[in-house]
Amino acid sequence: MTGPDLREEKSFLYPPGGILIWIIVLVELLTFGIALIVFRVNFHQHYDVFLSSQNMLSKNVGLFNTIILITSGYFMATAMINIKRAKQKNAVRWLLFTILTGVLFLIVKTWEYSIKITEGHGFGFDSFFDFYWMLTLFHFIHVLVGLLILTVLLYKLQKGHYHSGNYLDVESGGVFWHMCDLIWILLFPVLYLLH
Amino acid sequence: MKYKSQKVAYMFFALSIVLLLLQIVYGFIMGFAHAGFDGLHDFIPFNTATATHKNLLVVWLLSGFMGAAYYIIPEESQRELVSVPLAKLQFWSLAAVGVTAVIGFHFNWWEGRKFLEIPRPLDYLVVVNVLLFLGIILVTLFKGKEKTTTAMVLAMGLFFAALLYLPGMVWFDNQSVDSFFRWWVVHLWVEGVWELIMGGILAFLLIKLTGVDRELIEKWLYVIVGLTFLSGILGTGHHYYYIGAPKYWLMVGGIFSALEPLAFLGMALFALAMYRKGEKNHPNKIALYWTLGSAIVSFAGAGLLGIAHTIPSVNIWTHGTLITAMHGHLAFWGAYAMIVIAIITYAMPLMTGRKLYDRPAAHYAFWLSNIGMIGMTTAFAAAGVAQVYLERKVGMSFMDAQKAIEVHFWILIGAATLFTIGIIYYAVNFFQHGLPTDEALVKE
User: Fold this and answer.
1) Which residue in chain A is spatially nearest to B249 when comparing CA positions?
2) Rounded distance, CA A29 to CA A20, Å?
3) Is residue B444 part of a domain?
């Protein structure tokens, strides 16, 4: 990763977290975007099947998870602000909260998955559930990877490796984490709510 | 050339060129058969010719990759190869297995699985051979002074390519299941780990030829190669349409295949950007032509012509027709043939001390082969579209449709002749370099 000297140029090529992470964000959004469009097209082609299957999803669980992830995103941003203001201890605490809320999301999601499986609505049940599993599992993996990144960042932050003069890695980790939020915010209404 | 042991690369490069010429011969046999002149049918029937044509391609590309590794790894890790005799043994055994396989095809000794025709006993020999190769490369790399990103990515690509040979050696009773895992080898090679190998060679060449900072090239290139690689893994889905695999592959294959051209576009734009940034004073211009050409033609062949038929609603019509041949020819030529030729073109003057890159022959080779290949691709496209229409829309039988599109194969043969003249120029220029010599060693 590039050092802070380049970032201070405020160049278009060095947005927060560096340009490389934004390329990843762009490609991710494109992928999920295409998938969601294909999903909507299929929804209209097989309206009745999709509608009845969509009604089997629990909107409350989905909403709860949305709130958890948005909260987690807020914690991440707060941690970032604290690093920039050289409040190291606060930063560590907020980053820890970020990770804990992320884990909570995975727990709730896993619980939701187990209900779906016991109900028999697994992968291959119908086209709607194929999309549901594919999209949410991809997102699940992204959250898992995000948590892994945040854990490494937390460890190095505690060791004093990152501080108000060196935080580009934390910033790019944060961008990845916000991307996980954003994708979920797209998935939730399209999968759970829109008819 | 900085290390004596780099000379061993020459043997692999020479084998590549010879097998490429032989591959072209089998291409012509099939071209003429399609055009209605199948005089060799009793000796080399179409199925033998097609298997030989494709397997020769794989073997000469692998030989080129191995040569590239024997040239690049000592230079990047700053030490001699651990054992030149073992590398030579590996070369001769590779050549022996390759020749045995090709001769065997003419006596119906094969497995009959498309692209993986090599019979099982030879499979085991291939495994031993590749293990020996990997051993030499990896030990050299880890004993070396430096472990550069370029060398690591190249070595990783070669390692995973070896690993992914194994799914093709498992026995399945079910045709669909067999096909499913067959693509793990074929697809995950060409749209996965081979791209790491291509990326490693491309990075090495760009660093040497443009003079742009190593750090910059390595950082950017691997983001792009990484994207290509990731979209390629789930892009395997486009081989799972309508072969008995579950329906969700239509969705997965369609979506991830749509991303693949973007990654290739990134690679082409990146190579051009590095060229513009570079000093442009390296004398071996023609090596740079092949390098940039590889990045651009792979975008056209693998990227654009790939997406032309990987969308499920298109592929339902074009699956298994000459449209695939259209894509296959330009994709393999751009992505892999050109990068192997690029590294050979770069390395030969340095290994032999003979600077033959300014000769007209070197330029004829580049332009004629590329124009010829684009002509061939166009002929395949025209034939493919006509085939799809006649056979699948009008409902003609396979052979009647083939009869109706015979004329396109004369165009194909014409373009292929141009291509072949280019390759002959290249081969002549290659062998005029002579053998590598220690006199070409450069001390830093």
Assistant:
1) A130
2) 14
3) no
Question: Considering only the top CATH level, what class is A18-193?
Answer: mainly alpha
Contacts of A124 in chain B (CB under 8 A): 246, 248
- Decide if A30 and B252 are in contact by the 8 Å CB cutoff: no
What are the extents of the domains in chain A? Answer: 18-193
Subunit contact A23:B254, Cβ cutoff 8 A:
no
Select the residue of A20, A124, A131 nearest B223 (Cβ to Cβ): A20
- Across the interface, whether the CB atoms of B262 and A127 are under 8 A apart is answered no
Q: Do A38 and B251 touch (CB under 8 A)?
A: yes
Residue of A2, A20, A27 to mutate when probing chain B, most B C-beta within 10 A: A27
Name the closest residue on chain B to residue A21, using Cα atoms: B223
Give how many domains chain B has, as a whole number: 1
pLDDT (tens place) for every residue of chain B, 444 residues total? 999 999 999 999 999 999 999 999 999 999 999 999 999 999 999 999 999 999 999 999 999 999 999 999 999 999 999 999 999 999 999 999 999 999 999 999 998 888 889 999 999 999 999 999 999 999 999 999 999 999 999 999 999 999 999 998 988 899 899 999 999 999 999 998 999 999 999 999 999 999 999 988 988 877 877 888 778 899 999 999 999 998 889 988 998 998 888 888 888 988 999 999 898 889 999 999 999 999 999 999 999 999 999 999 999 999 999 999 999 999 999 999 999 999 999 999 999 999 999 899 999 999 999 999 999 999 999 999 999 999 999 999 999 999 999 999 999 999 999 999 999 999 999 999 999 999 999 876
Domain around B285: 4-437
Q: Is residue B320 part of a domain?
A: yes
**Structural contact between residues B369 and B426, judged by C-beta atoms closer than 8 angstroms:** yes
Query: Does residue B82 form part of some domain?
Result: yes
Residues 6+ apart with CB under 8 A from B322: B380, B383, B384, B387, B405
Best mutation target among B255, B269, B277 (most A Cβ atoms within 10 Å) is B255
- Indicate the pTM of the whole model: 0.88
Q: What CATH number did the domain enclosing B331 receive?
A: 1.20.210.10
Contacts of B259 in chain A (CB under 8 A): 27, 30-31, 34
Distance CA B101, CA A44 (A): 53
